[in-house]
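G., before I forget:
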Amino acid sequence: MNILVCVKRVPATGGRIVLTPDGTDIDTRYLGFTVSPHEECAVEEAVRIVEGRGGSTTVLTLGPAAAEDQLRDAMAIGIERAILLETDGRDWDPVATARAIVEAIRAQESANGPFDLILFGNESADSGGFQVGIRVAAALGRPVVTGIKSLAPGEGSVVARREAAGGGWETFELPLPAVVSVKEGINLPRYPSVPGRLRARKKEIERSTPAWQSGGLDKVVLRLPATETTQAEVLGRGAEAAPAVVDLLTRIGVLGR
Amino acid sequence: MSGPVIALVTSAGGGPDRASLEALTVARQIAAATGSPVEAIVVAERSSAGGAAASLAGLGVARAIVVEDDRLTPDHPDGWAAAVAQVAETRATSAIVGPGTERGNDLLARVAARLDLPMAANCLTVEPGATWAISRQRWAGSLIEDCRLTARIKVLTIAPNTVAAGAPDGGAAPAVESVPVTLTDADLAVHVTGREAPERGKISLTDAKVVVGGGRGVGSGEGFAELEELASLLGGAVGGSRVVTSAGWRPHADQIGQTGLRIAPDVYIACGISGAIQHIVGCKAAKHIVAINTDAEAPIMGVADYAVIGDQIRRRSPVRA
Ligand SMILES: Cc1cc2nc3c(=O)[nH]c(=O)nc-3n(C[C@H](O)[C@H](O)[C@H](O)COP(=O)(O)OP(=O)(O)OC[C@H]3O[C@@H](n4cnc5c(N)ncnc54)[C@H](O)[C@@H]3O)c2cc1C
Ligand SMILES: Nc1ncnc2c1ncn2[C@@H]1O[C@H](COP(=O)(O)O)[C@@H](O)[C@H]1O
């Protein structure tokens, strides 16, 4: 089974977000980078499926040259091949992103044969468009499901489960080739081993440079939401706080009802 | 006058869900600004279409559109996408507006992909004009993006819990119009093939009035026994940060935050949680937040109402003490 996973490089923001002076981006000078937890799980899922039944795994990202780091992170836990669609670092909207990914998939498939399964994160961590996977599937004419938290590929088809809107679970069965957007919780990703990291560092990365074209949704500026930052009232230190805590819980009506 | 604004309405337990009613508020604003009527497409079995239309009475919906195809159930995402796309095209629609829920985003992304249109997900405000000025959530709402949308038909989902769902004004139910669509077998190929009912008995984190959350500061999976005890004393549920689910101390289903659950209890007691923005977006709707942390400077103190500065691990349950 041949599997492609798409991941997006995003800043690893911590306690609060700082914007650049012109407000068009997050100030990343003091930040590390990562991918969405959903995408980490997609990578892990691809590696597990191929460990279980053979095949090949490929990871793809559209992003700046530095997004090579995220590709190597994926290779460190067992993805074999990596593709970087290199940009000048500006944001690509979901239409433009999907177009570039589709073009790359077509080129890959005509050279190396079809991907049976293409995995996405349910939504990107930063822009959260909830759509790139669906757009890629539509362009390729393949079935797609989103929000998936368990995946069981069989011969020629895949069974995918997700949480239903009102609780409980719902199941889909898709013929292969198919596209699936997964959510964190589908698995518990492993940590990369040291030999895994060393191997990943030496691997070849396929590169190309797609041309940017607006897809119709253009970012103007970013803002922090107006938050009411509170000044927490300190109830006490350690065990001495217990009476005050009991008092508070009683006052707001969750104790002694 | 431009064509109608189409509101996509998904339902829960018979009536429209709240996120759809919130999206309808924005649909009405757009319709008022562009001088056009609102028409609703209710995602429901055809047999319940009449009831669905009645449930939209007094909400400013001119017409409820019923899709004429008995094969179509709410379990056919591509079928609905095909139907919505066809209706939008034939009625010279200016915008399609739906809820920014998992289902709403999925369905409208399928519509946008079919029609080769951009889609703005989880919008907060929408100002029609030559190009439309939109603000939308990024990072699950920790950041706002002002953007411009240029498209023949504007496809928008509205971030849940950010606009008020309008109350019915006593007006009449919308007229019901039955519309034929052409659905291919391919449109109906993706569908739900099985269901499992929710587990019963357990207090769910999203319904609990009290949630006790644990983070790295809890120290171990065993450390959660004390949180369980506190939660059961208070009739609440236990959740946690991503650190504790990644470490396997708790199942992922208990994770609160951007890639976990959004909770809105009366009280959230955050034990040994630093307060990363990705965690905060999941718990900031709590009425009261109490933080227990050894670090008086932790970011959680900027969102907590009350704090206990101290060691989570060596602390005895304050309620029992
Ligand atoms: C795209 C993305 C999505 C994410 N989604 C989520 C999400 O859904 N949910 C989520 O939680 N995180 C999420 N994260 C991770 C998030 O950024 C943080 O890493 C995580 O929330 C930190 O968890 P924590 O507070 O338990 O650990 P830490 O940040 O390590 O904080 C531990 C805290 O415990 C305190 N402490 C230590 N010892 C004690 C003690 N003995 N007693 C009391 N206090 C003590 C420390 O002072 C510190 O404040 C996401 C990250 C990314 C990049
Ligand atoms: N720049 C990108 N490069 C590769 N994959 C991407 C990129 N942007 C989005 N994706 C994939 O598409 C999913 C959904 O993204 P979005 O539609 O932005 O929420 C993400 O979780 C990724 O798997």
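Residues 2-208 of chain A form a domain with the Rossmann fold fold (CATH 3.40.50.620). Chain A has a mean pLDDT of 95.

More on Monday.
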